[in-house]
Amino acid sequence: MKQWYFDLAEFRPEVGFKFEFLAGDEAGKQWKHVCEVTEVVLEKKLVHTWTYEGYSGVSYVTWELFADGEYSTKTDTFGDRNVSWRSAGIGNSQF
Asked: In 3D, which of 39, 86, 30 has the Cα closest to residue 61?
């Protein structure tokens, strides 16, 4: 996950696993992100919640990996918005 995502202290692709991290803007403001894994299809799909400490509302982030020759394509879904990433040398076994 560190190759594609934020620098997490620990991560396990297990339903119920909770993780958190700090990330922010260029001005230095930081927000604590609190997340929980809600769905896992090994080597194919991972879904987790995305919340901000002190703010209401829950988003769900869906990661899906697709083999494409020597590349892997990862699609993140944030609500109704999709973002795709394509990386060489990162296989489906990375989460």
From this structure: 39
> Using the 8-state DSSP alphabet, how is residue 93 labeled?
G
Q: Where are the beta strands (DSSP E) in 18-80?
A: 18-24, 30-41, 45-52, 59-68, 71-78
Residue-wise pLDDT for 5-56, tens only, equals: 777 888 899 999 999 988 888 898 888 999 999 999 988 888 899 888 888 8
Q: Determine if residue 79 is left, alpha or beta; phi over 0 gives left, psi from -120 to 50 gives alpha, anything else beta.
A: left
**For the whole model, what pTM was predicted?**
0.70
Q: In angstroms, rounded to a whole number, what is the distance separating the alpha carbons of residues 17 and 40? A: 11
